[in-house]
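Design job #97: recover the sequence.
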């Protein structure tokens, strides 16, 4: 697989830029994307396929839609795309219920289209990362269907967690583990003769039975799936729910605290061996590529979805023979405020340093509230269990902070993740009609939790009022999730020529981020006001004002880019700026 040489990204003016061309050229110089260790500093864009772009007019995003927008992504300045699951699936959980890893969902295309997309992206210098879900499969997966048709105690059932129920008739669930999606983690099966049968475990929905990773088939199959996609030219794999995969085989009740690594279903020590196996597969492809002149993808990488409060435990997964990098949910969940964000940055860098892994900087994804809406709330921290309908948000403040946060995340050392639509400043859509919400998180909460569809609304590409350009012109049907009124005003077409737009800001941010200072400079904290996050990397100074009053900009430095206006040489509240130290 060959990547093209680094592209010459079109310079799009940001809100403010240096007028010293020499200085800017140095800051904005490109790091070749052919670097072996590209992932350490990459900007990785998350595509939620169903909602990105609809190529065939059926109201559902697809791979043809992505192919038609690769030029947009190249001009945005990203290094890789992470695709949320694109496999055949009943979509009980947006595709995180995989029926067949070797087939593309027919709504999206087929494997040949995926191969073409991977190759076309590579030709534009964009690597592909696919999503793999080791904790569970769909209840329609051949293995689960085989298990249902097999006897209790059979090998087919041993690939999952089947247990007899409790009580005289076995009609009580065998355990008390809480589900990540409300309700019980146990569902009773019906035997082929129609009588009630055994129960099976599912940490998420009943349509997502958990796999038993002590069974050798499960390991073998997943390593084969990695090879299937690595053979098709992907440069990496995102590992879904990575800390939940191993279970205590006794499936004991959860009571009290556990010694590190021994909780019945989270962060068990056994996981490390599993991911060492995956790393060996990825490394095999990396090593093979090293001897192939035609292969410029560099390292094949693993990205972990690891939600753990204990950052020391989190970092264990990032040791040199395990996962390459993991999403930084600690940073992502912090409320707006210098103290908390600074602490998250310090703690992140402190735990990543010793294991030699890059930090990642994440502001959102397909599971969480869009930053524009979250940062406009009084409590702007993210937590799944505090999501409620009707929580007020000041979207003007939120949009200002989201722009400032984007510059902060992009200025930090490590890899950057951008969720589709954040570069357009999209807010969370909070008024999706209840009968259109698909997310099981909403339905399983008894309708209390709004669910995650609000950040999954199909993207606006043009000012066409019909589908805001999500579907091809002339499409009469609605997208799979309704778009709110006003959606076209956020569209790419509405923003692309406006130098003050959020899209222009992101383009400029990603372009400047490719410069030496932001690719390689060490982060050094600077003294500033307590409400200001202040550091420099090489000659680039970063400032984010999280306070309520404007602060003076540093002397002896020129403004390169700002997330908002800078009146009277000050940095107003909720604003970030990048400056370059003026040479003597
Ligand atoms: C991960 C995914 C989420 C999914 C869950 C179950 O957290 O990001 O979307 O619902 O796993 O697979």
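Job complete. Output follows.
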């Amino acid at each position: 697989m060959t990547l093209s040489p680094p592209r010459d990204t079109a310079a799009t003016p940001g809100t403010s830029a240096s007028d010293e061309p020499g200085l800017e050229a140095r800051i904005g110089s490109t790091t070749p994307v052919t670097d072996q260790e590209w992932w350490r500093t990459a900007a990785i864009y998350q595509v939620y396929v169903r909602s990105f772009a609809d190529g065939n007019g059926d109201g559902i995003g697809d791979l043809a839609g992505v192919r038609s927008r690769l030029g947009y992504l190249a001009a945005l300045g990203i290094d890789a795309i992470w695709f949320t699951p694109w496999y055949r699936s009943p979509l009980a959980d947006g595709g995180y219920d995989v029926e067949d890893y070797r087939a593309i969902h027919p709504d999206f295309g087929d494997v040949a289209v995926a191969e073409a997309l991977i190759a076309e992206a590579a030709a534009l210098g964009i690597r592909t990362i696919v999503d793999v879900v080791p904790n569970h499969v769909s209840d329609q997966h051949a293995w689960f269907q085989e298990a249902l048709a097999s006897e209790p105690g059979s090998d087919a059932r041993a690939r999952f967690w089947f247990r007899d129920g409790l009580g005289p008739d076995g009609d009580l669930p065998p355990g008390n583990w809480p589900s990540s999606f409300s309700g019980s983690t146990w569902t009773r099966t019906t035997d082929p003769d129609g009588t009630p049968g055994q129960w099976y475990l599912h940490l998420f929905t009943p349509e997502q039975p958990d796999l038993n990773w002590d069974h050798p088939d499960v390991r073998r199959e997943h390593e084969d799936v990695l090879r299937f996609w690595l053979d098709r030219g992907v440069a990496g794999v995102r590992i879904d729910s990575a800390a939940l995969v191993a279970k205590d085989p006794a499936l004991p009740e959860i009571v009290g605290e556990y010694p590190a690594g021994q909780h019945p279903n989270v962060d068990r020590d056994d996981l490390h061996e599993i991911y060492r196996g995956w790393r060996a597969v990825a490394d095999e492809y990396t090593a093979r590529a090293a001897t192939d002149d035609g292969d410029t993808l560099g390292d094949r990488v693993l990205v972990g979805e690891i939600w753990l409060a204990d950052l020391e435990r989190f970092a264990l997964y990032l040791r040199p023979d395990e996962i390459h990098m993991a999403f930084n949910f600690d940073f992502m969940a912090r409320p707006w405020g210098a103290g908390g964000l600074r602490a998250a940055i310090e703690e992140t860098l402190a735990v990543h340093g010793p294991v030699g892994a890059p930090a990642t900087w994440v502001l959102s994804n397909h599971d969480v509230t869009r930053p524009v809406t979250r940062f406009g709330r009084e409590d702007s921290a993210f937590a799944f269990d505090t999501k409620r309908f009707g929580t007020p948000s000041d979207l003007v403040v939120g949009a200002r902070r989201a722009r400032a946060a984007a510059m902060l995340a992009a200025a930090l050392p490590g890899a950057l993740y951008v969720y589709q639509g954040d570069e357009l400043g999209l807010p969370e859509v909070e008024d999706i009609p209840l009968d259109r919400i698909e997310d099981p998180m909403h339905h399983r909460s008894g309708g209390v939790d709004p669910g995650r569809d609000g950040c999954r609304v199909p993207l606006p590409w043009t000012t066409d009022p019909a589908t805001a350009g999500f579907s091809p012109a002339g499409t009469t049907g609605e997208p799979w999730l309704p778009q709110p009124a006003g959606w076209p005003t956020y569209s790419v077409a509405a923003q692309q020529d406006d130098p003050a737009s959020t899209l222009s800001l992101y383009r400029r941010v990603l372009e400047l981020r490719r410069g030496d200072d932001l690719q390689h400079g060490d982060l050094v904290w600077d003294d500033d006001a307590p409400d200001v996050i202040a550091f420099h990397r090489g000659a680039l100074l970063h400032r984010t004002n999280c306070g309520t009053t404007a602060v003076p900009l540093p002397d002896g430095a020129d403004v390169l880019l700002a997330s908002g206006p800078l009146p009277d040489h000050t940095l107003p509240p909720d604003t970030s700026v990048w400056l370059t130290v003026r040479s003597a």
